[in-house]
Specification:
Length: about 350
């Protein structure tokens, strides 16, 4: 199927990115400001981290140093920032006024941290999305669409992070049965290259320090998605999605061991196997077996139609007959090297990971 253009997807829209000061939010904001998705009427970035707001504001104004008056200039510009937390329904109600499209990127996403602090994961990953839904419905806010950002760990979850993200998906999908004024959908994808807590910055640091590179399990596989592809998947879920749809990118996958070997190259650095961490899977799945039968192909993505009868659309011929798992079609060393080169993530590229977070 030919992929339709995203060029005017968010033209003249008032866009809110909740949890938007992370690496994904920065790329999404950058693509919005560049006009890649059209010219939005306004972009609002909300998160609870005031320091990240400041750094992001300065970086988008191309300033080496900041002064207090930048925030006043922002009020007159396309891009604005709001300090607030998705856990706080009062803050959510305020920021959702006069918004057309919401992308919810607020999350606790580190698997080990969520295992040790499950109540914190519940507050952000479940009660936060519930606050968005409640505010829109209870205040009758004229929000056109909400897209929740999810993860492959929500598919047959075995850890707290995945469980909370799976419930976020269900909350947003079920919200379509409570109102016809706002469309709720989901974008679900796997590991994003070079984000905070991901394996590539860790491997770079370990190589710089002379090794060893630590891998939990030699056969472990993961999907590998660039930040721009992740942003495009999220916008596609808005632009081409229907009520209750879950958009899945057709992403490459690889063994983490292969990734480590490509980054090491001919350096005399060894690999150390440490054992699986709490809550980890050997392989990740983006579409489960029970979801495959209601999965269609649309605009270069797999789209899981809702299982709720009120939202389920026709699926004459499913796009998948088996689960879509990270161990099925693996990149070899040459393909991985090409991906790292295109993304500027080779060790010799010396990427500035701190600027990406």
């Amino acid at each position: 199927m030919t992929k339709r253009s995203l060029r005017l997807a968010l033209d003249h829209k008032r866009v809110l990115i909740i949890g938007g000061t992370g690496s994904l939010g920065k790329v999404l904001t950058s693509r919005l400001l560049s006009g890649f998705y059209g010219r939005p009427r306004r972009i609002t970035v909300m998160s609870r981290d005031e320091a990240k707001h400041h750094d992001m504001r300065v970086s988008f104004h191309n300033m080496a140093m900041a002064s207090e008056d930048i925030i006043y200039k922002d009020n007159q510009s396309l891009l604005s920032f709001r300090v607030g937390c998705v856990r706080d329904i009062s803050a959510v109600r305020m920021v959702l006024r006069d918004v057309d499209v919401v992308f919810n990127a607020a999350a606790l996403k580190q698997v080990p941290s969520c295992e040790y602090y499950p109540s914190e994961a519940i507050d952000t990953n479940i009660l936060g999305p519930r606050n968005i839904i409640r505010a829109i419905i209870e205040e009758s806010l004229p929000v056109e669409a909400v897209i929740g950002i999810s993860t492959d760990k929500a598919c047959h979850p075995v850890n707290v992070m995945g469980m909370t993200k799976a419930l976020q998906e269900r909350l947003f999908i079920a919200a379509n049965t409570e109102t016809s004024k706002t469309r709720f959908g989901v974008a679900r994808y796997g590991n994003v290259l070079a984000t905070r807590g991901s394996v590539i910055p860790l491997f770079h640091a370990q190589i710089t320090n002379g090794g060893p590179l630590t891998i939990t399990e030699p056969t472990m596989t993961r999907y590998l998605l660039t930040l721009t592809d992740a942003a495009d998947t999220i916008v596609s879920a808005y632009a081409f999605g229907e009520r209750g749809d879950t958009f899945i990118p057709r992403a490459p996958a690889a063994r983490i061991e292969t990734l480590a070997k490509v980054l090491i190259g001919d350096r005399p650095i060894r690999i150390k196997y440490t054992g699986i961490r709490p809550g980890e899977k050997i392989h990740e799945t983006l579409v489960a077996e029970d979801e495959a039968v209601r999965t269609v192909e649309r605009d270069g993505h797999y789209v899981i139609r809702s299982s709720l009868p009120e939202l389920a659309g026709p699926v004459e011929t499913p796009a998948l007959t088996l689960p879509y798992s990270s161990d099925l079609d693996l990149m070899d060393e040459a393909a991985l090297a090409a991906l790292l080169t295109r993304s500027g993530l080779r060790v010799e590229d010396k990427p500035n990971f701190a600027a990406m977070y």
